Amino acid sequence: MERQVGEYNARAFKLYNVRYDYGSPYPWRMDDPRVAFPIFEKAQDLGVNLIGVHKGVPLGPQPIEHTQTWDMDGAAANFPDINFVIFHVGLPFLDETCWQLIRYPNLYADLAATINFIVRAPRMFAEIIGKLLFWCGEDKIIYGSEAPIFHPQWALRAFRDFTIPQDLCDGYGYPQLTDQAKRKILGENLLRLHGLAPVNRL
Q1: CB 13 within 8 A of CB 51
Q2: Could you tell me which residues are beta bridge partners of residue 24?
Q3: 24-25 and 20-21 as β-strands: parallel, antiparallel, unpaired?
Q4: Cβ of 189: how many Cβ atoms within 10 Å?
Q5: Quick one: residue 2, left, alpha or beta (phi over 0 = left, psi -120 to 50 = alpha)?
Q6: Which residue from 38, 48, 99, 131 lies 20 to 30 Å from 170 (Cα-Cα)?
Q7: Which residues, including other chains, have CB under 8 Å from residue 89's CB and lie 6 or more apart?
Q8: What is the DSSP letter of 64?
Q9: Span 30-63, pLDDT tens digits
Q10: Tens of pLDDT along 90-119?
């Protein structure tokens, strides 16, 4: 962590509290005072207050319980000055993630990998983004793409043009994905978490 900040000016860390290696899972929890809390304390000492964590989307043949979001409560409550980003919006634990997002002001959801549904299963994506907008609002959603794996231009274009079907808005009370919400999700929210202001509107 010292090297990342000192040599590369890191402004955030992403953690994986699940790992599958040599035929066995190696899990740890974000609310573990012996394992996780020293990491968060070190981040604060280094001036970093933004930590992302892989949640949902199990990596390899490991118990799915290690990808659940239950441990985010303890992390958020014990370190209120750190903003924690739940990657992949915690899928398949979206409902649980939403309930956490509305209870802790320092929890956020990232659309990494989830954004794939915008083309592959657009109605499913509409339900995901609609539920997030309904429960936690446009200020707590951050765009993510898995860009190191593929170029995200198609996803950005699809998101720019995306609207939630009206029957879902009427039936579930989902707010529409407005241009303002899209700007926030595509960049303004993350800039705010980094203490930066947008130069040009997205």
Answers
A1: yes
A2: 21
A3: antiparallel
A4: 21
A5: alpha
A6: 99
A7: 56, 97, 109, 110, 111, 114, 128, 132
A8: G
A9: 999 999 999 999 999 999 999 999 999 887 777 7
A10: 999 999 999 999 999 999 999 998 999 999
